[in-house]
Amino acid sequence: MGNTAVHHDDHDHKPQGFLNRWVYTTSHKDIGTLYLVFSLIMFLIGGAMALVIRAELFQPGLQFVHPEFFNQMTTVHALVMIFGAVMPAFVGLANWMIPLMIGAPDMALPRMNNWSFWIMPFAFALLLMTLFMPGGGPAAGWTLYPPLSLQGGYNVAFVIFAIHLMGLSSIMGAINIIATILNLRAPGMTLLKMPIFVWAWLITAFLLIAVMPVLAGAVTMLLTDKFFATSFFNAAGGGDPVLFQHIFWFFGHPEVYIMILPAFGVISEIIPTFARKPLFGYTAMVYATASIAFLSFIVWAHHMFTVGMPLGGELFFMYATMLIAVPTGVKVFNWVSTMWEGSMTFETPMLFALGFVIMFTIGGFSGLMLAIVPADFQYHDTYFVVAHFHYVLVTGAVYSIMAAVYYWLPKWTGRMYDERLGKWHFWLSTIFVNLLFFPQHFLGLAGMPRRIPDYNVAFADFNMLSSIGGFGFGLSQLIFVWILIKCCLLEKGAKAEARSWEGAKGLEWTVPSPAPHHTFTTPPEIRDEDLAHGHVTH
């Protein structure tokens, strides 16, 4: 490897000029960077919308915005965070790291890779434009349930076109990831020697290809109901609005796992590194990931227990949902077992990984509560649900993305980030994110409904705490932005070694930091000591 590293540096010819480097690029590293930067911008925009929501809810009564605009904020906040922040961040990590982890020179379909990124900014331009149109943006919640979603004006067409473009981008990205993993692994990198992050993405990519067309079908039916006088979801014309919920959630539940399986992969890379022990139960982790993906297709109606399903249907979806807790529990126990008696250190990536394990588990427990049909009648459409999915998506998906950025940043930039600021970022985020979402469990149990701009004075105290937490969490993210600016743009920080973390295993740590523009032009030799799971025998 030593010789190839020198060889790479000599031939590290980056494209010259801004257009060639960033707009026409086919390099997996540059496209990965584009995805990550785009997702950070969307995270800040979506966060600003969340702060509008929390400012309005700081006390009872109508303070700052009209109820209609409040509903636009809840709707667009969700669409931006899911399709603009979390998913592109994971695709950016996949683009950057998968070729490095499997010893591939690049992604299998580099031109399509460029195309799948550049569709995204246009999709979000269309979505965000609707907020400035007569009649405003979509205001029916991110789930776009008819008939409410069909009462919008022009925004309906724009939002649906934007969703089609996002779906197109996702499907192209997923095909590329599958093609890369199945065809470009270095000789000797068998499937069961791949890092868990790669496995998680392989499985996620199949989920994406399976469910994005379902979403496309659902929103196309909305489009024809609105503009072409069809009656898919219009009861007056023989349609059924509940049919939309079935189609939507058949996409929507696997979508939740599309946002969490890559997070499981990230955490499974970080914990063994900082515990200085191989991952416990590698093969069990692979099978657990696949089981979660399979089960995610048979639980969709747990989002709609209150629509008047037959009892048999409610029982089926209740038991299937509880079953998903089993492979998820396997993962949590394996992470804990990996740390057990390890020589742990607590750098920022490990702190975010530990925060993930603890707080994601809280979200998992409230999910089990929601799976119980008679209890769900009490929780449904209250702030309890809001608390549940934000524990899964903020302290779950977003925390894992931050952990990944801190973990691989030295490999991307060749510099170590500011560790002290990283720890400040973690602790402030963690204190405020719990202040933000934990009280919402109590609000929901007391009966406060979701998606309302005003509320009973009985809910005032917990809402005030929640809003203080929201502003604290939002401002804490500015530390993260400053850390990135310092490391990436100002190029401050100690030079990073090729193996930036003591205990880090995997092919990505055998190339220099920063990773040269072209890596693995000749396939690397796969040595067991370079692999996090090299000890696994098959």
Summarize it.
The protein has 538 residues and is mostly helical.
Report on this structure.
The protein starts with a helix and ends in a 49-residue tail after the last helix. The protein has 538 residues and is mainly α. The longest helix is centred in the N-terminal third of the chain and has 36 residues, at 67-102. Helix content is 66%, strand content 0%. It catalyses: 4 Fe(II)-[cytochrome c] + O2 + 8 H(+)(in) = 4 Fe(III)-[cytochrome c] + 2 H2O + 4 H(+)(out). Pathway: Energy metabolism; oxidative phosphorylation. Pfam families: COX1.
What does the secondary structure layout of this molecule look like, with pairings?
Blueprint: H1 2-10, H2 18-23, H3 28-56, H4 67-102, H5 110-129, H6 155-183, H7 196-227, H8 241-258, H9 261-275, H10 282-295, H11 311-339, H12 348-371, H13 373-379, H14 383-413, H15 419-445, H16 460-489
Helix pairs in contact: 3-4, 3-5, 3-16, 4-6, 4-14, 5-6, 6-7, 7-8, 7-9, 7-10, 9-11, 9-12, 9-14, 10-11, 11-12, 12-14, 12-15, 14-15, 15-16
Look up the CATH topology. Answer: Cytochrome C Oxidase, Chain A
Strand content: under 5%
| Arithmetic mean of pLDDT | 93
The main pleated sheet reads as: none
Task: Give the second-level CATH assignment, the architecture.
Answer: Up-down Bundle
The SS-based structural class is mainly alpha
Approximately how much helix is present in the residues? Answer: 55-70%
Number of domains: 1
InterPro entries: Cyt_c_oxase-like_su1_dom, Cyt_c_oxase-like_su1_sf, Cyt_C_Oxase_1, Cyt_c_Oxase_su1_BS, Cyt_c_oxase_su1_dom, Cyt_c_oxidase_su1_bac
Pathway: Energy metabolism; oxidative phosphorylation
Membrane topology: Multi-pass membrane protein
Domain Cytochrome oxidase subunit I profile: 22-527
